Amino acid sequence: MKNYFKLLTLVLCVGIYSCSKSDDSTSGGGGGGGDLEAQATYRITFTTNWTETTHPTDYPSNASFGKVFLAAHSPAQNIFIPGSIASDGLKLYAEEGDLNDLINEHSGGEDNTAITIITGSSNVGTNTIVTFDINVTPTTTRISFVSKISPSPDWFVGVNSFDLVNGDELLESASVRLFPLDAGSDSGDSYESENSPEPGPILRIQGAPFISNGDLQTTQVGTLSIERIDN
């Protein structure tokens, strides 16, 4: 896993399982629900920008982003934590694109709170815009998002536990830049590397094949925009 460092810091979706700032990180901080409204609706926009023009090194002819996993959940829950070991469900999704185990891992929620999970019906293009809507409640004010980079050994883009709460109010809008992450289950260093299991933590990829001219900002492959639409 050369050239990596620890980052401590969608198609119209059809599967639902129920039980203004800018951010470059994969997670949000802050508190809980407080005296927030009973429910709010957010529109999530996944804008992709991973093409042969933007990222020419070894660019695969069959490039795409995988079926999206999106969740609204409590502050107690994490879908992934950069710098930590990925769950078995996330590893399977990052390697093979199979969402079933990831859904099963989180469909029960945490601390007896509900969770809403939305999944995509098909892969997402590499230069496109897709949107969907999701409801949040005072106990599900965190948003997490994952989409596999395909083909790849075990790479994905994601946002973990982004906090929609700003003080005692809900955010009106936010934007998160998406950079490639390594799930830590395979040491392959290019899109179609041979399978090479080597357990490690979730890391942000800061080198080849995504970087251009030594500029880390060029590794960005998309943006996740979050906009409240019910008021």
Question: Which terms would index this structure?
Answer:
nine-stranded antiparallel β-sheet, five-stranded mixed β-sheet, single chain, Immunoglobulin-like, mainly beta, 231 residues, 2 helices
Written account of the structure:
There is one protein chain. By secondary structure, the protein is mainly beta. The chain has one domain: F-spondin domain (Immunoglobulin-like), CATH 2.60.40. Helix content is 7%, strand content 33%. It has helices at 88-96, 100-106, and strands spanning 4-5, 15-18, 21-23, 40-48, 64-65, 69-73, 116-119, 129-136, 142-150, 155-163, 165-166, 169-170, 173-178, 181-182, 203-205, 222-228. Strands 1, 2, 5, 6, 7, 9, 10, 14 and 15 form a 9-stranded antiparallel β-sheet that branches. The longest helix is centred in the middle third of the chain and has 9 residues, at 88-96. The radius of gyration is 17 Å and the shape is globular.
